[in-house]
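Blackboard transcription, Thursday session:
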Amino acid sequence: MSTPLGTSPDEVQFRFRDDEPVDHGTVTVDCALEQTNANAVRIEPGDDARLLLPFLDRLALVEVNFPSFGDGRGYSAARILREAGYTGELRAVGDVLIDQLSHMRRCGFDSFAPDKRLDEEDARRAFATWADVYQRAADARRTIAETRHEA
Amino acid sequence: MYQYDQYDQAMVDARVEEFRDQARRRLEGKLTEDQFKPLRLMNGLYLQLHAYMLRVAIPYGTLNARQMEMLADIADKYDRGYGHFTTRQNIQYNWIKLEDCADALADLATVEMHAIQTSGNCIRNISSDHFAGAAVDEVVDPRPYAELMRQWSSFHPEFTYLPRKFKIAVIASEKDRAAMRLHDIGVRIVKRDGEVGAQFYAGGGMGRTPMIAPLIRDFVPIDQLITYAEACLRVYNRYGRRDNKYKARIKILVHELGAAEYIRQVEEEFAHLLSVGVEPPRDELARIAAHFADPPFVSSEVETQSLSTVLGANGGQGSAFGQWVRRNTHAHKAPGYVSAVISLKPVGGIPGDATSEQMRLVARLARDYSFDELRVMHTQNLLLPHVRIADLPALWAALAEAGLASPNMDTIEDIIACPGLDYCSLANARSIPLAQRISERFAETGRTEVVGELKLKISGCINACGHHHAGHIGILGVDKKGVENYQLSLGGSEAEDVSLAKITGPGFDEDGVIDAVEKVTDVYLASRTEGERFLDTYRRIGMEPFKEALYG
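(Written on the board underneath:)
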């Protein structure tokens, strides 16, 4: 039996979803592969997010841990899950900083549980920093190039 | 050249405001220095030995007169009246105050410039061939492809916290004037059966573990360029080492996996991303390319003149003008035109430094003689890409008066040197004084011209910002028990005949290494055959004769 990991809904500071959050902890990727009923999993920086792809239908919460803000592997993990069609909650947890929020949002994160609560006003500004974007990502935003060439 | 539209301008303006806000939060103590560091680095702000250093991006080395004048204004307003042009075609200011930085960035934004991603563990400013759009031998102008990649890589949400910095160069000719294979990714635009595509090299670099990038794909269709680059970066972001910053560059990943395995992973990711669809619309490349259309070259016989006519009327080959033309001009694709190198390597000067007055003069000359266009070369010189041959005498006279007409491109006086211990907190030894003394020694003895092409590169520490691994002669400054010591190496090249230099043997003190450079040129002069450059002679006769002269 694995010890539940992860953040509780109370620790989530920003959430861009309307459904009820999962009310229990997450398990490791290894556990999720073995436990056929696990619906909440936690990805560490060294984990391969693609291992979860066969089970996406049963997952309601994926937490991606950022033990250190400078380790950017979680951004790729998030996009990989979204590109594969994952629609459940994707939560960034750990050393998550104000200036990372907008990029994380673009990579598909839709909830945030930073270790240290962030200043609400600064965060609101950060989420809104980029009115336009240059590249396709996991969000559905139209890129600048697409806008330039829309019929 | 490329001009911002409302969207590009809005992105840069948003970035200035974001940085202003970050600086405010730092000052209010909401950000620790550790948290602020990657943010300021992604805006080109380093903490150096004496002050902050601001590195301003000059995408693919192209700028216009108005932008050069702004660089001069920034030098006067926020620095000490000069700037330093770098090996990645950017400019650095060494004496910037943190509290002025957001204002300097705002000034830059008024002329479509910025310092975005000139530092930090992200995709850096993209470099290119300084003769792009002018060179006879290019397949196409590489800059539209570089610009497409600039937009893709700017504020890329997935690749802002890479294991380490990431440098990309884009060229479009067999000749390599951008050290393409010594970049994290090197792209060569090619044409196969009339179809344009991109050849990709990955895992090159200098630093403490120099490596030449292997070919990872011979042809990427041009409408998949961004998708393929994204695949290369995603594999690196996921699997590049993060346990040791000295092993975190992509060259180590490619080396440890082996090129074949890296290629396999990239191809798998590429196939996946093609199905996701991340490529910009095809029309975007055409829109960008239209900005790089040829300027209106004149073609009548009255307006264009041949080099021999102009030389004949101005003192001939042997005159000071003739020497400058021979050394510092480069063949142009349009008849009656050349590209003209403005040397920032006066004898005894600091390689790559320019005063604000010089910048303003160069800007004026660009307006008068080069369709308002300028380039920064990776050799730390400036370039007027499109000069009418008939205008060369007037151009030369103006440059000579300002001390900018040293006829020394690609000679031993055209030294690449890092800032070294005079500025840099990482350096073990001084680079600049050594460069100054070597150029003085060779100029005094008249040997510069006798020796001809000889690329000398000096780094003040093993991080190799002065490209010593790629010098025909390379010098590396090290700290030997508290005393500066210089290791000499021979046989490197950053060009299409790329190779890494080999160390000659034990190092020298400052005087000793200058004598050593002279000795290796003695060996070359005694051994060369007709038409051989220093590098060719070294490759033919090997290291032994040089060692014998140095240590025998």
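Lecturer's comment: The radius of gyration of chain A is 16 Å.
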